[in-house]
Every structure is written in C-alpha cells, then in structure tokens.
Amino acid sequence: MTTSQQLFEKAKELIPGGVNSPVRAFRAVGGSPLFIKSAKGPYIYDEDGRSYIELINSWGPMILGHAFEPVEQAVRDAIQHSFSFGAPTRKEVEMAELIISMVPSVEKVRMVNSGTEATMAAIRVARGFTGRDKIIKFEGCYHGHGDSFLIAAGSGAMTMGVPDSPGVTKATAADTLTAPYNDLAAVEVLLENNHNQVAALILEPVVGNMGCVLPEPGFLEGIRSLCDKHGVVLIFDEVMTGFRLARGGAQERFGITPDLTTMGKIIGGGMPVGAYGGRRDIMDMVSPAGPVYQAGTLSGNPIAMSAGLAMLRHLNDNPGVYSRLEEIGTKLHTGFSNSLAKLGLPFTINQIGSMFTLFMTERSVSNFADAKTCDLPLFGRYFHAMLERGVYLAPSQFESLFVSVALTDELIDQVIQANEESLTVALTN
Ligand code: PMP
After folding, report:
1. In 148-193, where does DSSP find H-type helix?
2. Ligand 1: which residue has its CA nearest to atom 5?
3. Please, what are the domains in the chain?
4. Which atom, in ligand 1's list, is nearest to the CA of 117?
5. Burial degree of 50 (CB within 10 A; 0-12, 13-18, 19+)
6. What residue owns the CA closest to ligand 1's atom 7?
7. Which residues in this protein are found as N6-(pyridoxal phosphate)lysine (predicted)?
8. Is 142 a catalytic residue?
9. pLDDT of 382-429, one tens digit each?
10. Could you give the maximum distance between any two Cα atoms of the chain, in Å?
11. Which of 114, 117, 142 best tests ligand 1's pocket when mutated (most atoms within 8 Å of CB)?
12. Is the whole model's pTM more than 0.90, yes or no?
C-alpha cells in the first residue's frame, strides 16, 4: 500500500468518506486519492514523494503557481501581528478598494470565508431587496452547498425544484426554479409563470461546474435584459471566473454588468476567503447599514486579507499574466485537438482562457444534458493514465482544468504528450 492509501484507510474511519470535501475522494474515477504533502510553482507532491504537474491548482486559487513568493511573504509579515482580531482593520479597507477598482460592477463589497457563504448571502440580500422569495438557477451550475442551490438538475425548466440532497426541505427547494444553461426561452417562461415572485437569477457566466461550458453569443445579454424587464437581481457567480478570465472576471470579458457578484478562490490567494458585492443600493441592504443580516467572526481575517491582497495586487499590476494564461489555454487546446485528430476521436474541447475541459462525447457541450452524454468510465481510465504520467487533473469529467502561469512551454508539451498517450491507453483498456 502507498502512504496515500494508508492515510485514506485511516481517514475513512475518522472523516466521512475520508475527505473534507466530496470530489477529493476520487469516487467519480475510482481508486484512492493522493494525499498531498506540499506544492511549489507548477508542481504538487504527494505523501509518497511523487511529483505531478498541477492542472487543478486548488480548484482555482493558485493562478500564479503554488507558494507564490509575494503571497508567502505577505502571510509571513502578517502573522507577526496575531491571527485574528474580530475588529476592523486597514487591510479590509484596502481589499475593498482594490476589488471595487478591479471588478466593473462592484460599488460596495462584503468579505466572507468561502464561496458558499458568498452565494448564500447574495441571494438573501436579493430577497431582502426585492421582497420576493424565488430564485432561478441553471441545471449543472454549482453555487456552493447552501440549501437553495442543491436542487435537482434533471427535471426540466418548467418543473418546481426537488431537493437534490436529503436535509434540504421541500419548502426551500420549491423556491428554486431551474432552467437549462444557454436556454433563454426557458428562463422567460419561468419568469412569466412566476410573475413578480423571482428575487434573483444566479449563474456562472462561464460554467466550470459541469466541465467548462461557455455562454452562447447573446445568452448573457438576453439574461441581463430579462432580469431588467422582470425586476430580478442578476447575480454573476464569479467564484471560478473572477480574476481568472480577465482582471475584472467574466463580466469584464463579456461586457455585461450584473447587479451582484460573488467571488472566492483567487481572492484569498489560497486562504479561506469569499466576497459578495455589487450595486450600492442593494449592498446597503446588508447589516448594519440595512436590515438583511449577515456576519462572520473570522470575516476579513487579517492573514487571509494579506494573502488575498498580495495576490490581487500582483494580478492588477501585471496584465501580462492574462495574456500568458490565454497563450497557455490556446496551446493546450491546439495540442489536444491535434491529438484527437491523430487518434480519430470526435471528442469536444471547450476552452476559454485558462479554463479548459476535454469532454468525452461527440456532442458539442452547451448545457448539462450535453455534458452528461460523456463516456464516464473512459474518463476514469484516462484520468488514472494521466496520473501515472505525472499530470494531476480534476478527478471528474464534470470539472474544468485551472491552469496557472507557472506552467512553462516545456511542461505544456509534457501535458500534451501525456494526454495523447493516456487517451490511447484508456481506449485500449
Ligand atoms: N460558486 C462556484 C461557481 C464554485 O465553483 C464554488 C466552488 N467550487 C462555489 C460557489 C462554492 O465555493 P466554496 O467551495 O468556497 O464554498
């Protein structure tokens, strides 16, 4: 048994499923997860001393590579002044100022401790602001584990939500309406059938959570105008796309202005941080400025703010990061496409900037139903073949890769080579 396997056996006795977040358990691909000891730059190292090229990067935050020196230094400096005060600090003001300057639609912002907290708070604020109860989300979009978001995806646009997870009440689920991604007509029907009842529409402006799925031309514009027409608060969940697809996230890249934005991952530089922000009149509903309650003992934590500030300042001051991420994404796309052509495989690649998914299906993938046509056992074999070749991918077909700027051209070539070999191995097994 490897050390990772031994640790996993013990972990299963102590932690539900052996992990503190489900996807880590490798259930979707089989086998036993790697237990990670450290990471630096483009590499991650497991407990058995093996190294892997990183294409997960903590599911997004490590956009500059692991243990990026300015972030590390900022944390080292901060810990000399104690770890938490539960009182306001200068760094929180600097953080708010920086986020507002980077993200086009954000006029005021509140820091929280995770993406889940950000989305839960954002819909509460939208409900408080509009005095309405229902929300619309898209099938296959993930917005954290708040009750309102854990709603079955498959039951079609016009159906009332059914709880996806035991523990979510029917009453909560009934307030969440779902539509297929990229389907404006379905959204319109929901809005008309629930006239003056929908508080918010939340979406990933580029989806990462059914694999990478792009908004079709006109989709985001159409959503914006439907929300305007029906008085619905439009929430862009930019936990994945924020500070990744552009300095100002997907909203900058696509030129669409949401009312509220939820953020996470990169914003904390790897520390547990989230944030939500947006229009001043809506954000002024939040306690203590307004009546909508939301709080956190560790919110705006000084160590987390220091890491996040160092990260965002680097991104803000170095636009070259974004051109390099585009270049890396394009190189991977081209390399993978060439291999697919060579092997005669009709699979689909969705890529935008540094978000990327190879879908093992012939269908073009623009919503969750398309993504679900993938050959999942084939993906499992491919995933393990990639691991054997030293490439660390997300352990599920329904995830995006998150590339970092630490990936050199030489490493990109290694990934492309490993991909071609792994596809061949997966197909013959
Ligand atoms: N929204 C999106 C778009 C996400 O991808 C995630 C997490 N992957 C979340 C919200 C929840 O964030 P967290 O895991 O930090 O609670």
Report:
1. 170-174, 184-193
2. 240
3. 3-67+319-428 (3.90.1150.10), 69-317 (3.40.640.10)
4. 16
5. middle
6. 144
7. 265
8. yes
9. 999 999 999 999 999 999 999 999 999 999 999 999 999 999 999 997
10. 62
11. 142
12. yes
